[in-house]
Amino acid sequence: MLIPSRAWAKVSVQLNLxxxxxxxxxxxxxxxxxxxxxxxxxxxxxxxxDDFNVTSGGTSSRFEIINGKVNSGxxxxxxxxxxxxxxxxxxxxxxxxxxxxFRSNTGELTIHKAxxxxxxxxxxxxxxxxxxxxxxxEQLIYTLRLHRRINVSNISLELPESNQFALKKxxxxxxxxxxxxDHTYQVLELRYxxxxxxxxxxxxxxxxxxxxxxxxxxxxxxxxxxxxxxxxAGQPRTVASxxxxxxVLALPETGRPPGFTGLVGNFEIDATLEPASIKxxxxxxxxxxxxxxxxxxxxxxxxxxxxxxxKVYADxxxxxxxxxxxxxxGLKTMKWALVGEKEGTFQVPSFSVSxxxxxNRKYLTLNTSPLFLSILPGQKxxxxxxxxxxxxxxxxxxxxxxxxxxxDILPVHTSMDVLKRAEGYKAGxxxxxxxxxxxxxxxxxxxAGVRIKRNSQRSMASIRAKKSxxxxxxxxxxxxxxxxxxxxxxxxxxxxxxxxxxxxLTAEEAAGILRSNGVSNETALRLCAVLxxxxxxxxxxxxxxxxxxxxxxxxxxxxVEKEIR
Amino acid sequence: MKIYVWISAAILMAVxxxxxxxxxxxxxxxxxxxxxxQACRADNYQEAIEGYNLLIASGCINGHIYxxxxxxxxxxxxxxHAVLNYERARLxxxxxxxxxxxxxxxxxxxxxxxxxxxxxxxNVLFWIDSFSxxxxxxxxxxxxxxFWAVMIARLFRRSEWSxxxxxxxxxxxxxxxxxxxxxxxxxxxxxxxxxxxxEVDVLAGPDSRDTTLFKLHEGAVVHNERQENGWYLISxxxxxxxxxxAKAAEMVKI
Lengths: 565, 254
Description:
CATH architecture of the largest domain in chain A: Sandwich
CATH class of the largest domain in chain B: Mainly Alpha
Helix content of chain B: 55-70%
Structural class of chain A: alpha+beta
Largest sheet of chain B: 5 strands, antiparallel
Shape of chain B: globular
Strand order of the largest sheet of chain B: 6-5-4-1-7
Radius of gyration of chain B: 24 Å
Number of helices of chain A: 6
Oligomer: heterodimer
Mean pLDDT of chain B: 87
Strand content of chain B: 5-15%
Strand content of chain A: 35-45%
């Protein structure tokens, strides 16, 4: 068996936040990815989430075979609703698998005060810029947020066009919820890197979004089945953002270094020489990497001067541009092949580059550290001699195509073993028939046995259902109100009472199941509220502290018993 | 209790008597096989042909016997029968290098240039030509045992490793099953025939007075569409069709 026997041999836990900055009214999506297993002993406990309300967003598992490699994993999704502003370290998340505890990485999250904004109906677009003042070529973030309380589809975007700035799309879009006034909005956030190219006052014209909107019926406040976009045609709608003002400053003249090429942002430079020691006639590679954040498309191509001791052959520079939350990030790699000509040890000239740092409002010049190249005596003559010897060798071993001189058939087979194989072929038919049919018959018998056993267990389950409430109340009185115990006891009660086999159950799911079994909406919501409080305590690591649910749980369960069908 | 003892004794006796018979038959086969091989060595090919045919008639269905029989016919100058027996041997020992070499050589000696063509499914299941139906059945039987064993195990305990093993076995089991099914179908419905007469007229109808459409020569492999009153309706890959007397060709199917 090629498959590892212990699934947790390569288990890893990863915590991912959908963004690192949010307003106090926003919800943040947190995904805990457990790879290397398809089951865990418990739901993850998220440390550092005490100042958030945590709700579960569901669980998904995956299993895939790619190029013969088996990958499996589970993803737990949670939503964090901040209670206050500040900087938080979320995590690590702890997951228990086969009795072992695995911890994830942590994530930084900054919560700002609520964005100043006035709700403009159930569908509107806002635009914001990361700073109202910037230098020429400084990178800013232009953010568009579509707030909606209705379903939309076929969204297209019309961005402002100008020769005073350039826009470049960043990663995303992101979707989350936020609260403005008394309403919860679904927000679609798009981020662009904005690089101004001319000084002066710039007005960024409104952006426009065109879409098909599906507005719910005004006659009824309740969402009906036919509000689904599948059943309604939808209306074309266009929403526009406000225009945004920006003051673009010229780069300062004072302190401008002589070789400044217009690079604005924050950059680093690094040079390597590989190998540092070569023989004359051989080559070493000089690699220069210039990386950073800012107007990366303006990273200059640096030149390597001619060298006395080596010939220089330049390679084509390669620019790799990526985007992240902070904007555009670039890496330009420049390479030169240095072919040694003169023996000795020589210093490779250092490279320098200047840029303007807008945060500190000053010019900076970076230099590479000194590198040395050792050139040893070459072996030119020996190489020639050995090459000649090799050629002679090849001539001595010149091959010719094999020519057929005559043709005939190959002789008869005389081994007596072939007759034994003939016996096996004839005698094997009974065995083959048995090997094909018997295992299936045995499986059928085993399947029937298992089904009969399961049916008898099902009748046992109906007896268990009748006694489930009493059992829950006895357990509650015995063990008290610890959230971990309580969560498991309520889940066991629902599983027993309704003959379910659910491993985990969110508060909303539990309420939904009860409603579908005849329990009134009021009672279902009361149980839902209790479960949410318990869930919040469990997810934030307070599972072993007593929890005040504000409800008399035994009487709530008795009420459920009265109403359940 | 006694009845079980009697039944067991009867089964054991039956098994031993069958073994005894099998043993005796093997002794005979070895004797015939040895003599036929010796006849071949002494260039007495007619005796060798009779010996090998006797083995086959007595139930010794073996690819190597057909191969030797093909060799004996070839030495006798009967290319049609040589090709016929090599083709039969290929159904049982398809990867035998000697056989494939001799078959290719024998076909080179035939007069008619007939392109070889197989069913489309052979291009998809490209490996099935390299295995005999018996080998594929062995393979399928072993995988079938393993597959149902894992299925039974999963009825009682569903672990992660058993799921992966189940998936792998399912793919292998299906591949082996489909391969065996197609190979078995090919062998059981083999419509190929080999011309065993030096030259045969292919006629427009199953009557010797019908028009001659074309001629075929010894060793040509044709497709037999149907048989009527001692006549075969044969066709070639280039869509030529016609009737030949049944005695002019022999079916490859064993």
